[in-house]
Amino acid sequence: MQWWCAAQGIPWTWQWRPYPGVWLFVGLLVAGYVALVRRFGATRAQRVRFGLGLASLWVALDWPVGALGSGYLASVHMVQFLLIALVAPPLLLSGLPRAALDRLAETRVFPLVRALTLPLVALLLFHTIVVATHWPGLVDALMTSQWGSFVLDLAWLVGGIAFWWPVVCPIPERPRFPFGVRIGYIVVSTVLMTLPYIFLTFAELPFYATYELAPPVGTLSSRDDQRLAGLIMRIGGGTILWIAAGILFWLWYRAETESERSAARSGRDARALPLSRPPPPRSPPSPGTPPSRP
Amino acid sequence: MRDRGRYVRERTGLAAAILAGALVSSCTEPAIDRREGTEGLRGVELAEPLEVPAFTLADTEGEAWSFRDETAGRLTFLFFGYTSCPDICPVHMANLAAALGDLPYDQRRRIEVVFVSTDPGRDTPERIRQWLDRFDRDFVGLRGPVERVNEIQRALHLPPAVRQALEERGDETAAARDEYLVGHASQILAVTRDGRARVAYPSGIRQQDWRHDLPELLALDDALPSADAGPPGTR
């Protein structure tokens, strides 16, 4: 029995296999989140987002996606990458309680977090990890061992968290990274992800020995599987990033509208100010003047 | 201002260190599946070329197919396997077919691929044809009594095919359905025009290895006399 999905070279069957390391990993994340929620509280929306992030992580790591992706099909390996690096991190991060993040800002590790999540650093880190973890030599060397496969999955998750942090997390505050720049950050990423896509889709020969020599699953040839992996990266990854850019644009629009509304409200209030002044005190009625009617 | 400059330098240094570390690790040469053959070939050259025995088996049309007659003067890849094979056979055939598909037509037509079934009990002619057509319609499929097939394999210093019950592997459901595996030699033999096997391609050979070796094998084949012909140049 394996504890983490890795290439084994044995024929694929649809018979379920347990991966206790994956359960432990997901279980630790659940336990950590429960502890955070008990201490700091969390909104329902935050809990739902964190739950969805965990679910996508679990689907990517466990049987059958994890097993197929680690040792049989490059296309499923790419689905794993999208789930671990692009889908799970923003959901997990946006599910964290704000008070917990504020508490993190007071800890000693925060300067490191701040440094790694500087937008330019995070962008470079993430795309270096993307290129390195799709490099044939490294993939073939890592995928044959459970530890190697674990390191690869962890690299995607860490890279994804670093990449999404400046976009999703409110701390550290980055006034020079407003919505417009964040959208640009996402768009630049769609362009940078084109490089591995081109290599995968237009290569004449299969890159990865792991998938080329794997016992076949279905009738997909290793070349077509690799092309499909490239298309999944391009279309799937592009879709996720463009959705993120769309959400940012909507948040930006909402924030602008809100700020315009509050500006208009305060302007109206300012104009209404003389009217709201209390009327000047009336002079006491002079003797002989009839009293006013109520 | 000086603090700001120091801050930028520190961050830039950190980013550069991360990038450099990742690039170094990504450029590490893989330790697996690099098959360095002798004399520039990526297949394993046999110390002594082996003469393929003359044999005749039934092809997928049910016709007698004489290996020596049909492959004389051609570079031939000979492989013993079975169509229910879950791993080695389909991968080997797929990779060879893909590499052959990349060759120019005038080179491709000079190469024959012969698949001999080691599981004649399940491999009917139709099944062999259907299976081979998944890879290449020009691949030849042969079938005969397993004893005869094993004789041929022994003559080529290959281990004979062995039927292996799946219950030995703990798969009792498959065993109940009378499914079994066949242990067999995993190498494809390159037989040159003189009827001698010269290079073996074990499992693990990749398309890039075939692409590298095929032109060299054709050149080697060109330089040899046919089994039933005179020296090169007289064909």
Task: Tell me about this structure.
The complex is a heterodimer of chains A (294) and B (235). The longest helix of chain A is centred in the C-terminal third of the chain and has 55 residues. Chain A is an all-alpha fold. In chain A, helix 4 packs parallel to helix 13 and helix 8 packs across helix 9. Chain A contains 13 helices and no strands. Chain A has one domain. The C terminus of chain A is likely disordered. Chain B is α+β, with helices and mostly antiparallel strands and 235 residues long. Chain B has a single domain, classed as Glutaredoxin, CATH 3.40.30.10. Chain B is built from 8 helices and 10 strands. In chain B, helix 3 crosses helix 8. The longest helix of chain B has 25 residues. The chains are: A mainly alpha (294), B alpha+beta (235).
List the helices and strands and how they pair.
The complex is a heterodimer of chains A (294) and B (235).
Chain A: H1 20-40, H2 44-61, H3 65-71, H4 74-94, H5 98-104, H6 110-116, H7 119-132, H8 136-143, H9 146-168, H10 179-192, H11 194-202, H12 209-212, H13 222-276
Chain B: H1 2-26, E1 44-51, E2 56-59, E3 64-66, H2 67-71, E4 75-81, H3 88-101, H4 105-108, E5 111-117, H5 125-133, E6 140-143, H6 146-155, E7 162-165, H7 172-176, E8 180-183, E9 188-191, E10 196-201, H8 207-222
Helix pairs in contact in B: 3-8
| CATH homologous group name of chain B | Glutaredoxin
CATH C-level category of chain B: Alpha Beta
Oligomeric composition of the shown chains: heterodimer
Largest interface: A-B, 33 and 31 residues
